[in-house]
C-alpha cells in the first residue's frame, strides 16, 4: 500500500484484504473512538479530572457498567489515567493521559467539521 509522509494511505489495494483492514492502525483507533460514549468521555476529561460518580452524573443515559467498561478500555489503551485515593470508601479520579490529551485537537477538528457540514448531511439523507 502506498502512503504519504503522514502514513495515511493514498491508494488502497482493490479489493482491500480483510486482514489488512483489520490490522490497519486507523481502523483500530476509529473502532475505539466510534463507540457510543468514548468521544463524550474524552471531551469531558479534556476539561478537567473527574471522579467516577461525577462522570456518571455528567453523562445522562450511561449505565455504571458501561461507564466502567469504557473507562477501563481507555485506560488500557493509554488514553486515560486512573488514580485511587486512600479514603474510606476509596475514591477514584480519572484524567486524560498525555496521549489522551494529544487526541483533543484532532477530535476538535472532526467535531468542527461535523458542525459545519451537518446540514449538508441531513439534506443528503432527505433526498433518499
From TrEMBL:
- The HTH hxlR-type domain covers 24-122
Keyword terms of this UniProt record: DNA-binding, Transcription, Transcription regulation
A Pfam family found in this protein is HxlR
User: The organism sits in which domain of life?
Assistant: Bacteria
Write down the InterPro entries for this protein, in alphabetical order.
Answer: HTH_HxlR (IPR002577), WH-like_DNA-bd_sf (IPR036388), WH_DNA-bd_sf (IPR036390)
Q: Which SUPFAM superfamilies match?
A: Winged helix' DNA-binding domain
Per the database entry, which stretches of residues form a coiled coil? Answer: none
Q: What is this protein called?
A: HxlR family transcriptional regulator
Question: Origin organism of this chain?
Answer: Actinoplanes couchii
Q: What is the lineage of its organism?
A: Bacteria, Bacillati, Actinomycetota, Actinomycetes, Micromonosporales
Amino acid at each position: 500500500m502506498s502512503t504519504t509522509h503522514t502514513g495515511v494511505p493514498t491508494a488502497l489495494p482493490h479489493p482491500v484484504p480483510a486482514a489488512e483492514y483489520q490490522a490497519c492502525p486507523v481502523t483500530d483507533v476509529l473502532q475505539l473512538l466510534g463507540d457510543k460514549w468514548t468521544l463524550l468521555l474524552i471531551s469531558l476529561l479534556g476539561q478537567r479530572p473527574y471522579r467516577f460518580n461525577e462522570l456518571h452524573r455528567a453523562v445522562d443515559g450511561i449505565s455504571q457498567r458501561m461507564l466502567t467498561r469504557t473507562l477501563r478500555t481507555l485506560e488500557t489503551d493509554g488514553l486515560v489515567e486512573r488514580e485511587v485515593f486512600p479514603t474510606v470508601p476509596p475514591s477514584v479520579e480519572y484524567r486524560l493521559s498525555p496521549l489522551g490529551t494529544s487526541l483533543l485537537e484532532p477530535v476538535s477538528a472532526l467535531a468542527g467539521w461535523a458542525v459545519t457540514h451537518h446540514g449538508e448531511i441531513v439534506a443528503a439523507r432527505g433526498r433518499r
